[in-house]
């Protein structure tokens, strides 16, 4: 199973580094599980994150293995929310049964891709009004929301 963490300009470091740490630890500590965790970005250039960290992704979309699970972090998601090529990739992953996940405002990227239409979603509490007005059902119960 290939677990990808998407990196983009102005992504919040904690929103991608936390999931990367947990998923990478799983892949390294239990190799018999067949899990691979990696970062993915649009290019091989350094990605400038929200607090100034520059990071190099493990893969581009062209070099990555088939993505089974993707994590879209929060941050200033205006760039990826307008990226039609990314939206097509997300719809392709979803269409073949892959799991799309997001952290915080990363849900706006999934919404922009059209994969949350009519499904429950959540985001940072300060952006909940925008989430609710985007066509998804904003959920506040529990610590996470699952959309099928």
What does this structure look like?
The protein has a single domain (2-138), classed as Class I glutamine amidotransferase (GATase) domain (Rossmann fold), CATH 3.40.50. 30% of the residues lie in helices and 20% in strands. The chain has helices at residues 13-29, 78-81, 84-95, 107-112, 128-132; strands at 2-6, 36-41, 47-48, 54-55, 59-60, 69-72, 99-102, 120-121, 137-138. Strands 5-2-1-6-7 form a five-stranded parallel sheet. The chain has a two-stranded antiparallel sheet with strand order 3-4. A two-stranded parallel sheet has the order 8-9. The protein is globular. The two termini are 20 Å apart. The relative contact order is 0.16.
Primary descriptors:
about 150 residues; 5 helices; Rossmann fold; alpha/beta; five-stranded parallel β-sheet
Secondary-structure map with pairings?
Layout: E1 2-6, H1 13-29, E2 36-41, E3 47-48, E4 54-55, E5 59-60, E6 69-72, H2 78-81, H3 84-95, E7 99-102, H4 107-112, E8 120-121, H5 128-132, E9 137-138
Parallel strand pairs: 1-2, 1-6, 2-5, 6-7, 8-9
Antiparallel strand pairs: 3-4
Largest pleated sheet? 5 strands, parallel
- Please name the fourth-level CATH homologous superfamily: Class I glutamine amidotransferase (GATase) domain
Report the CATH C-level class: Alpha Beta
Structural class: alpha/beta
Low-confidence stretches: none
Helix content: 25-40%
Radius of gyration, CA atoms, in whole angstroms: 15 Å
Q: Mean of the pLDDT scores?
A: 88
Beta-strand content estimate:
15-25%
Please tally the helical runs, counting DSSP H or I stretches of 4 or more residues: 5
CATH topology: Rossmann fold
Which term fits the overall shape? globular
Largest sheet: spatial strand order: 5-2-1-6-7
Measured between the Cα atoms of the first and last residue, the distance is: 20 Å
Q: Provide the succession of SSEs.
A: EHEEEEEHHEHEHE
Number of strands: 9
What CATH architecture would you give?
A: 3-Layer(aba) Sandwich
Quickly count the domains.
Answer: 1
